C-alpha cells in the first residue's frame, strides 16, 4: 500500500556537488577558525627542518639515489618526508576531530544526511585532504624561503601525489577513529600509529642506511605504507613517478577507505556495537 | 497511468512514522523488545520513558545511526533500511546530545546542514533566515554558537531540523536542563508547527508537563511499550487522577518536574 504513496526520488549530480562542497567548506571554515591548528601544523615540520636537519646534515651523508641526480643537502632530502608528515598528522588530526565530533554529536548530523553514507565519508576525506594539501604548500613556501631548492615544476607535479597520499592517510585516520571509543584513547594513536609510521619510514633517512644498520627495521620500513607515500611525493617533486609507491598508496587508499566505510556502515560497523545513550 | 494516479490518491497516507516489532540489543543487553509505535501525520506524539528506557536507542534506529536488525521502521512509507535516503529526507532530528558545531556561526551551522540535504547556497540562506526568525533568533545569525545559551542552542537545533522542510520531526529530550522560559518557547514553537503546518512530531521526554491531554502517548519502559493511547485515555485506563499518577502506576515513580 505504502509503496504507491512513497515515491522515490534521488539526488541530482548538482545536489551531490552541493553536499560535497558544503562538507569541504565546513572543514576549511573550521581550519581557518582554529589558527593554532594551522600554526602547529606548520611549526612541527619547520622545527624538523630548521633544527633537526641542521644537525643531521653534518652527520648523515645522503648518497646519490633516485630521483636525485646529484648529492643533495639533507634539508632537500628530508623535505618530502616532512611534507608527508604534515599529511600524516593532518590525517590523525582529522581522526581526532571525528572522535570529538562523535562525542560532541556533530558526527551524527553528517551520518543522518540522506546522501549515501559512503559518499558522505568520501566527501569528508576529500575535505581533509584539501586542508592537508594547503598546509603542505604553506610549508613549501617557508622551506623555499629557508633555501630548500626544489624544481619549479615540481610544485605542480607533486599535487596529485599529495592528493593521493593525503587521501590515504585521511582514510587511515577515519578507520582509526571508528575504533577509538573516547578522546582520551587518542594518545594511543600517537604512540602506536603516528610515531612508528613516521620513524619507520624513509622520511628522515634513506632506506639503504636503515638496511645497513638493521635489516629488521628495514623490513618494517618496507612494510610501512607511509614509506610509499613519502617516496611517491619525493619522486613527484622531481617530476617522476615511482610506480611501486603509486600502486601501494593507491591500493592502501582503497583498503583504508573501504574499511572506514564498513566501520561507519550501520549494518556492519563498529559504531552500533558501542551501546546507546542514557535514554 | 491515470488509473495508477487515482489508486495513489485513493490509498490512505501512510503513518509519518511506523515502528513495527523492533528489537535491539547491545551484546547480550536487550535495549528494545518488540517495540510497536506509530506517529500519525500532523499529530504530536509523546514517547514517555524514564532514563534508560530505550528512547535514545529507538531514535538511533529511526535515524539509521544504528541498523534495524529486527523489525521494521518506515518514515512516510519509506523503509529506513531499504530506502534510507528517502526516509532521512522526510525526517528532521533533534538529538538529546547537542550536535551544533561550536566553532562556527549559527548561520554556518544551518548552511552546512542545508548542504547535507543538497540545498543550494542561495536557497539555504533564505531558509536559514526564515527558520531563525521562527525561533526568534534572527539577530543571532552571525554569532558563534559558543556565545549562545543552552536554550538558544536548542532553538537553533530545532530551526536546523526544519530547514529541509521535513514532514516528521523527531525530538529527543529537547528541554532537559533548560529554564522554564526557554522550555516554553520550544514547546510552543513545536506545537505551532503541528497545528499550522501539519508536521508530525515524535517528542521523547520524561517530563510529563510537556504532554497535553489530547496528545498521542506511548510509554516505553525497560525497552518495551507498556501503554499507548491519548494522555486522557491512559489516565482513564489506569484509573489514575492525572498523567503523573498514570505514568507512575505503569513504570514506577515519575521524576520531579524542575521548578
Q: What ranges of chain B have pLDDT less than 50 throughout 5 or more consecutive residues?
A: none
Give the C-level CATH assignment of the largest domain in chain B.
Alpha Beta
**How many separate structural domains of chain A?**
1
Radius of gyration of chain A, whole Å = 20 Å
Count of discrete domains of chain B:
2
For the report, how would you describe the main beta sheet of chain B?
Answer: 6 strands, mixed
What is the number of strand segments of chain A? 0
Return the structural class of chain A.
Answer: mainly alpha
Q: Report the span from N to C terminus of chain B.
A: 59 Å
Low-confidence stretches of chain A: 1-6, 273-279
Structural class of chain B: alpha/beta
What is the ordering of alpha helices and beta strands of chain A? HHHHHHHHHHHH
Q: How much strand of chain B? A: 15-25%
Q: Within the CATH hierarchy, at the fold level, what is the topology of the largest domain in chain B?
A: Rossmann fold
Strand order of the main beta sheet of chain B, please?
6-7-8-3-9-10
- Count the E strands of chain B: 10
Q: By CATH's scheme, which homologous superfamily of the largest domain in chain B applies? A: P-loop containing nucleotide triphosphate hydrolases
Amino acid at each position: 500500500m505504502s509503496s504507491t504513496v512513497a515515491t522515490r526520488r534521488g539526488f541530482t549530480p548538482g545536489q551531490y556537488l552541493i553536499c560535497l562542497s558544503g562538507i569541504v567548506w565546513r572543514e576549511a571554515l573550521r581550519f581557518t577558525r582554529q589558527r593554532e591548528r594551522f600554526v602547529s601544523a606548520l611549526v612541527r615540520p619547520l622545527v624538523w627542518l630548521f633544527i633537526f636537519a641542521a644537525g643531521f646534515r653534518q652527520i648523515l651523508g645522503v648518497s646519490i639515489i633516485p630521483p636525485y641526480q646529484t648529492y643533495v643537502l639533507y634539508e632537500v632530502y628530508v623535505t618530502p618526508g616532512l611534507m608527508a608528515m604534515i599529511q600524516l598528522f593532518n590525517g590523525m588530526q582529522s581522526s581526532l576531530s571525528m572522535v570529538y565530533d562523535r562525542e560532541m554529536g556533530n558526527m551524527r548530523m553528517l551520518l543522518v544526511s540522506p546522501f549515501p553514507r559512503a559518499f558522505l565519508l568520501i566527501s569528508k576525506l576529500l575535505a581533509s585532504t584539501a586542508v592537508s594539501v594547503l598546509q603542505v604548500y604553506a610549508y613549501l613556501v617557508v622551506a623555499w624561503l629557508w633555501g630548500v631548492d626544489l624544481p619549479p615544476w615540481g610544485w605542480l607535479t607533486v599535487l596529485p601525489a599529495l592528493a593521493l597520499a593525503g587521501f590515504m592517510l585521511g582514510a587511515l585516520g577515519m578507520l582509526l577513529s571508528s575504533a577509538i571509543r573516547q578522546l582520551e584513547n587518542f594518545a594511543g594513536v600517537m604512540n602506536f600509529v603516528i610515531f612508528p609510521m613516521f620513524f619507520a619510514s624513509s622520511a628522515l633517512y634513506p632506506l639503504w642506511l636503515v638496511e645497513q644498520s638493521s635489516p629488521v627495521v628495514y623490513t618494517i620500513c618496507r612494510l610501512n605504507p607511509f614509506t610509499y607515500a613519502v617516496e611517491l611525493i619525493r619522486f613527484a617533486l622531481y617530476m617522476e613517478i615511482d610506480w611501486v609507491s603509486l600502486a601501494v598508496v593507491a591500493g592502501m587508499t582503497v583498503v583504508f577507505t573501504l574499511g572506514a566505510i564498513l566501520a561507519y556502515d550501520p549494518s556492519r560497523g563498529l559504531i552500533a556495537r558501542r551501546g546507546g545513550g542514557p535514554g | 497511468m491515470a488509473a495508477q494516479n487515482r489508486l495513489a490518491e485513493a490509498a490512505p497516507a501512510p503513518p509519518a512514522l511506523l515502528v513495527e516489532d523492533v528489537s535491539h540489543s547491545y551484546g547480550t543487553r536487550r535495549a528494545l523488545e518488540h517495540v510497536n509505535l506509530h506517529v500519525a501525520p500532523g499529530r504530536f506524539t509523546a514517547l514517555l520513558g524514564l532514563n534508560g528506557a530505550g528512547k535514545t536507542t529507538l531514535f538511533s534506529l529511526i535515524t539509521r545511526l544504528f541498523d534495524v536488525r529486527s523489525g521494521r521502521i518506515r518514515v512516510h512509507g519509506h523503509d529506513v533500511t531499504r530506502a534510507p535516503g528517502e526516509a532521512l529526507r522526510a525526517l528532521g532530528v533533534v538529538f538529546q546530545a547537542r550536535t551544533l558545531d561550536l566553532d562556527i556561526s549559527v548561520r554556518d551551522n544551518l548552511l552546512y546542514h542545508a548542504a547535507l540535504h543538497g540545498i543550494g547556497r542561495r536557497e539555504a540562506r533564505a531558509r536559514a533566515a526564515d527558520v531563525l526568525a521562527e525561533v526568534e533568533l534572527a539577530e543571532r545569525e552571525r554569532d558563534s554558537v559558543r556565545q549562545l545559551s543552552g536554550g538558544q542552542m536548542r532553538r537553533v537545533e530545532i530551526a536546523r531540523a526544519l530547514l529541509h522542510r521535513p514532514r516528521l520531526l523527531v525530538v529527543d529530550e529537547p528541554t532537559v536542563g533548560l529554564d522554564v522560559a526557554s522550555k516554553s518557547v520550544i514547546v510552543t514553537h513545536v506545537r505551532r508547527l503541528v497545528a499550522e503546518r501539519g508536521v508530525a512530531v515524535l517528542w521523547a521526554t520524561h517530563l510529563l508537563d510537556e504532554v497535553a491531554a489530547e496528545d498521542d502517548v506511548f510509554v516505553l519502559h525497560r525497552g518495551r511499550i507498556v501503554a499507548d493511547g491519548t494522555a486522557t485515555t491512559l489516565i482513564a485506563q489506569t484509573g489514575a487522577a492525572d498523567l503523573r499518577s498514570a505514568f507512575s502506576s505503569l513504570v514506577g515513580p515519575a521524576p520531579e518536574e524542575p521548578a
